[in-house]
Amino acid sequence: MMSLRTRVALSGAAVLTVFVLLTSLAMERAVRDSVLSAREERLQAQIFLLMAAGEEEPGGLVFPKALAEPRLSLPNSGLYAKVLNALGDPIWQSASAVVGAESPTPLPLAPGQQRFERLTGRDGRAYLALAFGVTWATGPTPQDYTFVVEEDAATFHAEVGQFRASLAVWLGGMSVLMLVTLVLILRWGLKPLRRVAAEVSAIESGNRTQIQGQYPAEIRALTGNLNALLAHERARQRRLDNTLGDLAHSLKTPLSVMRGALEEGQVPSPVVETLQEQVTRMGHIVEYQLQRARAGGQQAATLAPPVPVRRTAERLIATLNKVHRDKGIQVALAMDASLQFHGVEGDLMEMLGNLLENAFKWGRRRIRVGGTKRGGRLTLAVEDDGPGIPPEQASQLLERGARADEATPGHGIGLAVVREICDAYGGRLQVDRSTLGGARFRLILPG
């Protein structure tokens, strides 16, 4: 899922882009209108100058060769002037329009009418034209004329284009500056969240027991609730541990006395078989309830400090070597010392201990224990050179009470306990054939 910083940054960039585009369009439109208005005023001033310079003669209006605007006397200067009669025929045009000029001629206007428009000549060039209709009453007979002044629109487009380029540079620079500022503000604003994440990671690794930093009011409720949850889980785990210890201690002595009495023959033979069956059943029930309680407490497992796997395996192997010293089994331990299990140490000892005890029970001469961490998952493997497990019996042996050999001592719940604890952690237990010739049990747990 996309991070909050990326979401806000992308949203801000999108909003800023739309804002800059709309702002640039609005500013360009305003500048275009302003430049057009200025062009219209300039052309209107040229018309007034022409009207002031014109004189009525018997042959019509005449204008001096040297006009107030020098560009009207310069051929193809980009500024042109014309005078039309009432029929729309040109009766005079400036020297600038004499040589190869193809400027358009607007329609004649009624006296007092003015029109500013964009026209296109026969050569495809665009012009800004201002036409003004007047009645010339200085001669014996009033005459209607239309004064026209045209300017090449290229200068207008060049001015607007220059403004557009300058606007793009400045708005682009300001946008980049605002984006950088936004990213820095986001980094500063989200800093408390990064600190919370770092403290939670420290709690998961066992370096801290609660969130201790000072945070803004918006996050303080979250950190307070997390601390309350952590305290509740620790208290719950302590109560669970105490309950399990008390239960184990209170049941251990009575069961031991009963087993001893049965073994020493202190109980009449007619009830021995019944008592043995009930003692075994009590042991199953106690073990099952203990594992149910442990599995129910797995929610707090990720809050426990990490457990070194190799050190735990070495302790278990040393204990089992003493128990099975008569078999002379050689154990090869292949795992890195930095390998860690994120959970309760007792759960790791229960799972690994049951698998090792099973391997010592069925193995002949060799046992191999390995561990790796890959793809965020911890994999522990216990292999032996015993008779192995047929594929059709693999899933059955993971059920509570199932045993591969009824003649071998045991209650048939060890592998089921391993599977239940493994399932509680979100992992899985796999059984297949080992290269040593016997069975291979693999614990695959979340890292």
From TrEMBL:
It is found in: Membrane. One of its GO terms (cellular component) is plasma membrane. Its main location: membrane. Residues 246-447 form the Histidine kinase domain. Pfam families: HAMP (PF00672), HATPase_c (PF02518), HisKA (PF00512). It catalyses: ATP + protein L-histidine = ADP + protein N-phospho-L-histidine. Keywords: ATP-binding, Kinase, Membrane, Nucleotide-binding, Phosphoprotein, Transferase, Transmembrane, Transmembrane helix, Two-component regulatory system. The chain crosses the membrane at residues 167-186. GO terms for molecular function: ATP binding; phosphorelay sensor kinase activity. Its EC number is 2.7.13.3. CDD domains: HATPase_PhoQ-like, HisKA. Residues 187-238 form the HAMP domain. This is histidine kinase. It comes from Imhoffiella purpurea.
